[in-house]
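re: ur question from earlier - yeah i can do the single chain one, its not a big deal. heres the input i used so u can compare w yours
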Amino acid sequence: MPADTASLDRASQAIGDLFLAGRVPDAVAQAVSRAYAALPGEGPAVAVRSSATAEDLPDLSFAGQQETYLNICGGEAVLQAMQRCWASLWTARAIGYRAQHKIDSATVALAVVVQALVPADCAGILFTANPLNGRRDQAVINAGWGLGEAIVGGLVTPDTLVVDRGAGKVLSRETPAKALMTLRTETGTVEGPVPAALQRAAVLDDAAALELTRLGERIEALYGTPMDIEWARAGGQFAILQARPVTALPAPAADEPAPPLTWPLPDPKARYARSSILELLPDPMTPLFAGLGLQAINQGYVRLGEEIFHVKNVFGENMVIQINDYGYYSLRFSARQILIILARVLPAFSWVLRTAETRWKNHALPAYAAVVERWQTADLGQMPAQALLQGVREILYAAIDHYQSIQAGILPAAYLSETLLTQYYDRLVRKPGDPTALTFVLGFDSQPIRAEKSLYDLAQWSGQQPALAAFLSATPAKQIAAALAQETPTAPVPSGDWNGFRARFSAHLAQFGHGIYDLDFAKPVAADDPAPLLETMKHLMGGRTANPYVRQQEAAARRTAAVERIETRLKGLKLRWFRRLFDWAQRYAPLREDALADVGLGWPPLRKMLLELGDRLAAHEAVARRDDIFWLDEAELVALAAALDAGAPTLADQGPAVAERRARLQAEKRVTPPPVLPQRGRWVGMDLEKFAPAKTGQGAGNKIVGIGSSPGQVTATARVLRGPEDFSQMQQGDVLVAAITTPAWTPLFALASAVVTDIGGPLSHSSIVAREYAIPAVLGTGVATHRIQSGQRVMVDGSRDEVTLLP
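and the output i got, formated as tokens:
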């Protein structure tokens, strides 16, 4: 019986002994010896592989049922390996597998294939269709270092890449720590440690992954079906080892919606632009944020207009709208609105600058923090669903009021103060040999820099605990995060070290874990998904990144020396103006980063409240899993919350709507939203594209133009990061390529050699932090994340405003 493992083992052992005791027929032995002797080299290494007649059937692969022997040298050793392969037709697992699937063992036979061994630097498996979702337009690659047995045998967690075959683009990659690899020895193979420098390194860059995918497509075309292919790579050249049809492939998923090709205007006479708060929303908005979030943003603009201009409804009630699920400012105003703005803009702007710091520090931030504290301590599990929803709205409205106090205060004060200082210094003060104006606004402490130093301190402490450091270095970040959630350590680490690390990391998250990667609350922050932060911390443990304390001290020392140099030379009015502008810029440079870092202060409790609702909806089978709640629209959630509170026994299944919306937004993410609509449009006589945070009309050549926001030139490997889920891909010295970076991205700058973004300008967060790190930055390209591929070599020239794509 297949389930009687003891009898299967006994039968297998007896049959194997008979094979090994037998003698290879002379004719076969002589033919094998002649063929082996004809191979190039002296005593060449070969792979001896099994190929059974029952293998690779349409529905059954038999993968792993028979044996393969690698690095076999010498004619006699090849004959012995052949006997062991023949015997492997009768291993216990092979006999049981055939019995389970009702295949008569008397009908099967096995051939042995002998191949010249590829001295692989790396090896793995390629599926020409995605075995998880059935997508025929996606390929999936597993890759590991050394020969392929460690991967095939499941001894190592390999890199996993998903490739869009049609677009010729790597969609995603996972690069876990790889501790083991199969190594050649004089008598065969052995499992040995991966060199430390390679454990976290990507086995294949994007160019190699695409080359392998193209080989797989040729094999698929030959056989007319999706294929499961074993491959190896040596000296930069791929070799195909074997190929079999993919079995048990799911039916193809429903075709994704096509990406939008047009951008229909809600009002053909209006103008639309993506800037300001929408720079924090680089992706299409999830349905729930588009309801609750946009409502809070638009109501916030109503209140802000009244506060600044002392007139109701200056900006209208729909300042921000959606086009293809991307957010846009609507810039159509009535004659009345334009007259009010023009008549009051100067006194309003003066008030904005004069009150910027006090409105944020003394009013907006404390009010926001008070709302957050009230909901952080609430017993969410005991609250009615509608009360939770009301709490979400309260936090959202306080968050938007907080952001808009920054937008209409701290940000313009920071932009203006740095711009005026730079213009004054460059035109009236600077002489040959003097430092650049950037020197005067660097080296200040701010919340993102404090967060980086806190993480650096934690990494240094962890590196001094040998068992803890070994565990953290060898363990994927998601597993570390899961272990941190446990009360007792699950790792082979002394409890004192583990508890110390857990307490320190918790304290870091409590102070800095609310930093947002994206304003859309569907995207986790570090407080509820610390894996991306742990990935960065592991890099900091390696000691290859600069000490942030030293970097900041050196920048501060250069600033102090520059100020003293200038002040000893200037006199009278020119000196007073320099001091005044310097003091103004010095005050707002760190204040801007402090303010933006707290935008997501309420996101951890807000997400807990929504996910609590998601758990309740999942328990009633209205959604499949808790985070499906973000794909409901506001009206649906309001109705479902009321039904939950009313004790409804069943709720309507939202699954089809959730699936359709996920697919639609995934398709929309594949396009670059125009920064201005209609494109090349004008508004009150101004060319809006000149003020857009992203360039338009980029050609298809090897040059991408943007805004050079931090000087210098670097040639390095690009790493395209769509969000925190990709942070594990970042390696020391990579060029960081992203849609936009927020303060929560700051620790990655310690790894980056340069920065390129789709959105941003000279005074954006990316620019300010890049200058702190003295790395080149080209921002606002509009197309970087679509035109640049991970693993591609690029030259970033922050002094010439361009990125060059290299062969």
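Confidence is low (pLDDT under 50) at residues 56-64. not sure if urs matches, ping me
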